[in-house]
From TrEMBL:
Protein name (database record): Ribosomal RNA small subunit methyltransferase I
Function (record text): Catalyzes the 2'-O-methylation of the ribose of cytidine 1402 (C1402) in 16S rRNA.
UniProt EC number: 2.1.1.198
InterPro entries in UniProt: 4pyrrol_Mease (IPR000878), 4pyrrol_Methylase_sf (IPR035996), 4pyrrole_Mease_sub1 (IPR014777), 4pyrrole_Mease_sub2 (IPR014776), rRNA_ssu_MeTfrase_I (IPR008189)
Keyword field: Cytoplasm, Methyltransferase, rRNA processing, S-adenosyl-L-methionine, Transferase
Domain Tetrapyrrole methylase: 4-207
Pfam families for this protein: TP_methylase
N-terminal signal peptide: none
Record GO biological process: methylation
CDD domains: RsmI
Catalytic activity, reaction form: cytidine(1402) in 16S rRNA + S-adenosyl-L-methionine = 2'-O-methylcytidine(1402) in 16S rRNA + S-adenosyl-L-homocysteine + H(+)
Location(s), subcellular: Cytoplasm
Gene3D superfamilies in UniProt: Cobalt-precorrin-4 Transmethylase, Domain 1, Methyltransferase, Cobalt-precorrin-4 Transmethylase, Domain 2
C-alpha cells in the first residue's frame, strides 16, 4: 500500500492559531518536509511536540531534486507531512510539485486546514469577497509588473497579491497607473502579529503612504473593475485590451475571443475594432 501526503497549514503569525491536528501530525509522521527546518524547530517547541520521524528540508532551491525522493517514500507506505514557513503549502510556497507527483503515482493526498494570509486579508479588507482571484507575487521588473497588471485591469473579481515590503510603494504606484488611482484597496501588514495593521484607501493614497516605508509581511487586496455594460467600452479600449493580451503571449484570435467574452460583445465587433485600428495605423 502507498502512504499518504499531508499538507498542513501553519500559523501566519500567532502560534496559538495552529490547528490541534498539526501537533498530532508532526508527532506521528514518518517524514516531515519543512521549508525551513529552523522555523520548524521553533514551531515544535512552541507546540510542545517532538517529531518521531525524519525531518528534511523542502524549499524552492531543492524542491525539484527532493520531490522524487519523497515520492518514493510515499510509494513505500510512508506518511509524509509537508509544512511551510507560514500558511498553506502550495500557495506561493513549495508543495505543488510534490502534490502533482504524488497524484501521478496514485498516492493519497490530504490536508490539515490552517491559517491563510490570502483569506484573512480578504476578510479584513472590507472589499467584496463573493468572487476573488489570487495573483501571488508580481514580477520584480517594473515593465513586466505593469504588463501583468494591465492584463487584469478589467478583472471584476477582487484581486489578492503578496508583496515584499521594500517593493510595496512601487507596486502600489504601478497598480494606480494600471487600475486608476481611485480604485479601492487594502494593505494588510503583519496579520495576526503584534503590530497587525490594515490600511484602506485608494491606490494613489496608499502608494503615497507606502513611500514613507513599510515593514513586515504584506498582503494587498484590490477591488475588482467596475461592471460595465456592453456599450460602455469604446473601440480604443477594446483594441488596448487585445494588445495587452498579445504582448503577454496570446495569439490574436484567442486575445480577441477573451476580450469579447469579458466585455460581453460578439467576437466580430472586437475583431472589427482591431482591424480598423490597424488600417488607421494606430
Amino acid at each position: 500500500m502507498t502512504g499518504t501526503l499531508v499538507l498542513a497549514g501553519t500559523p501566519i503569525g500567532d502560534v496559538r492559531d495552529a490547528p490541534p491536528r498539526l501537533a498530532e501530525e508532526l508527532a506521528g509522521a514518518d517524514v516531515v518536509a519543512a521549508e525551513d527546518t529552523r522555523r520548524l524547530r521553533r514551531l515544535t517547541q512552541a507546540l510542545g511536540v517532538t517529531p518521531r520521524g525524519r525531518v528534511v528540508s523542502y524549499f524552492e532551491g531543492n524542491e525539484s531534486a527532493r520531490t522524487p525522493e519523497l515520492v518514493e517514500e510515499l510509494a513505500g507506505g510512508a506518511r509524509v507531512l509537508l509544512v511551510t514557513d507560514a500558511g498553506m503549502p502550495s500557495v506561493s510556497d513549495p508543495g505543488y510539485r510534490l502534490v502533482a507527483a504524488a497524484v501521478e503515482r496514485d498516492v493519497r493526498v490530504t490536508a490539515v486546514p490552517g491559517p491563510s494570509a490570502v483569506l484573512t486579508a480578504l476578510a479584513l479588507s472590507g472589499l467584496p469577497v463573493d468572487r476573488f482571484c489570487f495573483e501571488g507575487f508580481l514580477p520584480r521588473k517594473a515593465g513586466e509588473r505593469l504588463t501583468r497588471l494591465r492584463e487584469v485591469a478589467g478583472e471584476r473579481r477582487t484581486l489578492v497579491y503578496f508583496e515584499a515590503p521594500h517593493r510595496l510603494d512601487d507596486t502600489l504606484a504601478t497598480m494606480a497607473e494600471a487600475f486608476g488611482a481611485d480604485r479601492r484597496a487594502a494593505v494588510c501588514r503583519e496579520l495576526t502579529k503584534t503590530y497587525e495593521e490594515v490600511r484602506r484607501g485608494g491606490l494613489g493614497e496608499l502608494a503615497a503612504w507606502a513611500a514613507e516605508g513599510v515593514r513586515g509581511e504584506i498582503t494587498v487586496v484590490v477591488e475588482g473593475a467596475p461592471d460595465r455594460g456592453p456599450g460602455e467600452l469604446d473601440a480604443e479600449e477594446l483594441v488596448r485590451r487585445v494588445r495587452v493580451r498579445e504582448e503577454a503571449g496570446e495569439r490574436r484570435k484567442e486575445a480577441i475571443a477573451a476580450v469579447a467574452a469579458q466585455a460581453g460583445l460578439p467576437k466580430r465587433e472586437v475583431f472589427d475594432a482591431v482591424v480598423a485600428a490597424k488600417n488607421a495605423g494606430a
